[in-house]
Amino acid sequence: MATISFEALVEKALHEPGFFDELKRNPIKALKDNGFKPTPEVITALKAVDFDAIQNVAIACNPAVGPIC
Amino acid sequence: MSGISPDGDPSAHFTHLRMFPILQMPEWLVETLPIKPDLEFQQSLFNSSVNGYYYIRLIDDVMDGDRKRSLELSILPAAGFFCSQFQSFYQAHFPQQHEFWRMFLELWTASCESAAHDSSLRSVDWSEFEKVSSRKYSAAGIPVAAACYYYNCTELLAPWLEFTNDLARWSQMLDDLLDWYGDRHDQRATYFLSEGERRKRAGESVDQWVAREGCMWGFCLLEKWMSALHSRARELGSTSLQAYLGQREVWLLQQKSEMLKGFAAISQLASILEQVSLLSDAVPVEERVPG
After folding, report:
1. Which of A42, A49, A63 is the closest to B181 by Cβ?
2. How is chain B split into domains, by residue range?
3. B267: which of A65, B35, B97, B291 is 20 to 30 A away, CA to CA?
4. pLDDT tens, residue order, chain B (291 aa)
């Protein structure tokens, strides 16, 4: 089974924030697509995650802009 | 120019809140003087600083080895144009023997030396951050110095250059903090990442350190320095400068809140997904028989 490391989640948060749209809207499909078997416990736990906050990290860091200071 | 502008608009680049206020600094200084500003001179400072910025930025981007390297290399000869424009506006206002040129050389050389030294560092400690990394902004003092000489207020040179250095240090730290991921990915040594390497726990990655305490540590440092900047700005007497710092402080707190909330949520998600692998033999949702 595939796993998603902490580092991979950070990478996705900064460069692929759309990944979390699917986890938010359709967690069962998102988990399956990434090689996970969705369980009720996990689905319940996922509902408590603030995905908007994760996606806002990309806006806060804004890596596409690069250094502008 | 559009590609490196925050919103793709070069005309808004220099007034973006994350931008070092190279255009505004001389204006804020002049605001404290009992004189009517010479608009032609002020415009010259603007033009010079815009050209100087693009010169430094072009060199900096090539040195950083960003993804658009081929494009940057192809436009590198434009650096010569930007550099000549940057200097020519000062040449129109200060004769060759003017004291301004000694200060120009001092600040410009410090900036160039720091940029070269900084790029060679493999790890950055506090002393190097203070003496090298932050000094890359030294050239930002040139238009400030020009205003002091032009309006005969050289007694303001030292305090305004000190403030410029302090704001540069703050800006460099903010840049280190917000761009930590790209810096780590591109293996650029920064003070923030070097502290991460020193402070992370055994077996912990730098990414995990950033989420656990690094982000908070960096923002706390920035808040502390911002407080000192406010005090200095009050001493300098520019209300516009104080208002600018107030805006940046509000923005900083928003960034801090968003990043901390985001990292907390990423940590929570990572913990859940870790359980998924442990529960890999559990019966998936759709395979369970109700009742």
Report:
1. A63
2. 13-275
3. A65
4. 777 777 777 778 888 888 899 999 999 999 999 999 999 999 999 999 999 999 998 888 888 776 677 888 888 888 999 999 999 999 999 999 999 999 999 999 999 999 888 888 899 999 999 989 888 899 999 999 999 999 999 999 999 999 999 999 999 999 999 999 989 988 899 999 999 999 999 999 999 999 999 999 999 999 999 999 999 999 999 999 999 999 999 999 999 999 999 999 999 999 888 877 554 455 454 544 443
| Chain B: residue whose CA lies nearest to A55 | B262
Domain contains A39:
yes
Tokens of A64: 């596409």
Here the tokens at position B221 are 């440092």
B11 CB-near residues (< 8 Å, 6+ apart):
none
Closest CA to B197 of B179, B178, B184: B184
Please answer yes or no on whether A45 and B275 come within 8 Å at the CB atom: yes
Rounded to whole angstroms, how far apart are CA atoms B79 and B54?
8
Asked if A38 has any chain B CB less than 8 Å from its own CB, the reply is yes
Flag whether residue A48 sits within 8 Å of chain B, measured between CB atoms: yes
DSSP A9-25: HHHHHHH-TTHHHHHHH
Q: Which CATH architecture has domain B13-275?
A: Orthogonal Bundle (1.10)
Of A6, A61, A68, the CB nearest to B181: A61
Instruction: Collect all residues of chain B within an 8 Å Cβ-Cβ radius of residue A46.
Output: 269, 272
Instruction: Give pTM, 2 decimals.
Output: 0.88
Element (H, E) at B224: helix B215-236
Q: What is the value of ipTM here, to two decimals?
A: 0.87
B269–A46 CB contact, under 8 Å: yes
List the single residue in A38, A39, A49 with the smallest CB-CB distance to B269. A49
Looking at the structure of chain A, the number of domains it has is 1
Range of the domain at A46: 21-61
